[in-house]
Design a protein that fits this description.
single chain; about 40% helix; seven-stranded mixed barrel; 11 helices; alpha+beta; about 400 residues; 2 domains
C-alpha cells in the first residue's frame, strides 16, 4: 500500500470513529419509562410559539381562555384526541424543547387520567416531589397522581418529564375518599403584579374555583356553597374557619410538610382544598410542593408564637392554622410519629428500588443529578432535636 493510500485509509478510520463518537454522545437517551407522544399541526405549533415568545418578552406566561390548541396524543399504546396549552407561571417552564403543557383529552385513559400537566422534573424537585406524593397518599392525605414519563413531540424526544394530575374527581375516587369537591384560589391577581411589589392581602381579591363532578349536581349545591364559605373565611383570616377543618387531617398534612420540607405547597397561590361531603369538613391537599423552601425550618410549629408579620403575609396565613387547639394537638402527635427513625426507614425501604430506577432514568438526561437518600432521616433528626429543646 502506498503512503498516500495508507494515509487515506487511516484518515477514513479516524473520521468514522469520530462520527461514531459524536453520534453516541449526541443521540437522545433511551428511557425505560412510559411514553407520551404528542402530534401538533404546524399552524397550531406556530400559535404555541407565539404565546411562548410573548411570555419570554414580558417575563411570565400570560394565559387566556383561547390559548388551547388541538393535538393528537398516544400514551403507550392508547391513542386520544384532545387539546393542550403552555403551562407554568415563570420562564423555567418554557425552556427550549422543555416546554410545560396542560393537557385535556377528549376521553379518559384506561386508568381514568384525562386532565393533567407535563413539565420539566427540575421544576418539581425531581424525586423530592415523588417521595412527597407517595408519603401523603400512604398516610391518607389527598394528593394528585405524580409519575415520570418520556415526552415525544412531533416525533422528537423532549426527554424526561413529570406528569401531574389536575384537580378532578378521579383524584378523590382513586384514593378511596368520600365524594366531595376540590377548591383553590385563582392566582391571576398574584401574577398580574410586577416583580418586587408587595403581594400581602392579594388573597382577599382571589376568585375561589371549584373542581369535581359533584359541582354539576344540584343535590350538592348547598354543600358546595358551605365549602366556598369556609374558604372565603380562610381568605379573610377568620379564626373560627379552622373549626370547619378536619383537625386530624390538617395536623397530619402540616407534619408531613415539615418532614418533606414541602412548604411550597402551603402558600395560598399553591394550596388546594378538599371538602369531604361525608364529614362536612375541609382538608388540605398535597399539591406542587417544590421547589424547596426553607422558611418552615426547623418545623412550622416552632414559629407560630414568635413570628410577627403583616396579617395577610403568606407565613402568617400558614401558621394561623396551628393556633387552633385541635389542629395543633393533632399536628404535634403526627410530628412525633413521622419523625421517628423507624418510620422513615420503613418508607425508604419500601420505595428504595423504585427510587434507584427513577434516579437512573433522570440521570440519563440530567447527568449530575443525585437524590439524597438520607434527606428524610436528616429532616427527622433536625425536627426531633428542635422538639426536644
Amino acid at each position: 500500500m502506498t503512503k498516500k493510500k495508507k494515509f487515506i485509509a487511516i484518515s477514513s478510520v479516524v473520521i468514522i470513529v469520530a462520527l461514531t463518537a459524536v453520534y453516541f454522545l449526541t443521540r437522545p437517551p433511551e428511557f425505560n419509562l412510559d411514553k407520551l407522544h404528542i402530534e401538533i399541526a404546524e399552524n397550531e405549533y406556530a400559535q404555541l410559539e407565539k404565546f411562548r415568545e410573548n411570555a419570554l418578552g414580558i417575563g411570565r406566561l400570560d394565559r387566556s381562555p383561547d390559548d388551547f390548541v388541538a393535538a393528537d396524543f398516544q400514551y403507550n399504546k392508547e391513542a386520544f384526541n384532545g387539546e393542550l396549552r403552555l403551562k407554568g407561571d415563570y420562564l423555567d417552564h418554557l425552556k427550549e424543547n422543555k416546554w410545560s403543557f396542560r393537557i385535556k383529552l377528549d376521553n379518559a385513559m384506561d386508568d381514568g387520567l384525562q386532565i393533567f400537566s407535563v413539565q420539566n422534573p427540575a421544576s418539581r424537585g425531581y424525586l423530592n416531589s415523588y417521595v412527597y406524593h407517595q408519603i401523603l397518599k400512604e398516610e391518607g392525605v389527598l394528593s394528585n397522581e405524580f409519575r415520570f414519563i418520556e415526552l415525544v413531540v412531533n416525533g422528537d424526544s423532549w426527554g424526561i418529564y413529570c406528569l401531574e394530575e389536575h384537580l378532578t374527581s378521579r383524584m378523590i375516587a382513586s384514593q378511596n375518599k368520600p365524594n366531595g369537591v376540590l377548591l383553590k384560589f385563582s392566582d391571576n391577581s398574584f401574577f398580574a403584579v410586577g416583580e418586587g411589589v408587595n403581594t400581602d392581602g392579594l388573597i382577599k381579591e382571589a376568585k375561589i374555583k371549584v373542581y369535581g363532578d359533584a359541582k354539576k349536581e344540584k343535590s350538592h349545591k348547598k354543600e358546595i356553597s358551605f365549602a366556598k364559605g369556609i374558604i372565603k373565611d380562610y381568605q379573610y383570616r377568620i379564626d373560627s374557619t379552622y373549626n370547619n377543618f378536619d383537625a386530624k387531617q390538617t395536623g397530619l398534612y402540616y407534619a408531613l410538610s415539615d418532614l418533606t420540607s414541602g412548604y411550597h405547597a402551603m402558600g395560598w397561590i399553591n394550596i388546594r382544598f378538599y371538602f369531604n361531603f361525608e364529614t362536612q369538613k375541609m382538608e388540605p391537599v398535597g399539591y406542587d410542593a417544590y421547589p424547596k423552601l426553607e422558611w418552615g425550618n426547623p418545623y412550622l410549629g416552632k414559629h407560630v408564637l414568635t413570628t410577627n408579620l403583616a396579617p395577610f403575609e403568606t407565613k402568617m396565613i400558614v401558621y394561623s392554622a396551628l393556633k387552633n387547639e385541635a389542629i395543633n394537638a393533632a399536628y404535634l402527635k403526627a410530628l412525633e410519629r413521622v419523625t421517628q427513625a423507624n418510620y422513615i426507614e420503613n418508607i425508604m425501604a419500601k420505595h428504595h428500588d423504585q427510587l434507584l430506577f427513577l434516579e437512573a432514568e433522570i440521570q440519563k438526561e440530567y447527568t449530575d443529578y443525585q437524590y439524597n437518600y438520607n434527606f428524610l432521616i436528616e429532616r427527622g433528626k433536625v425536627i426531633r432535636n428542635a422538639l426536644n429543646n
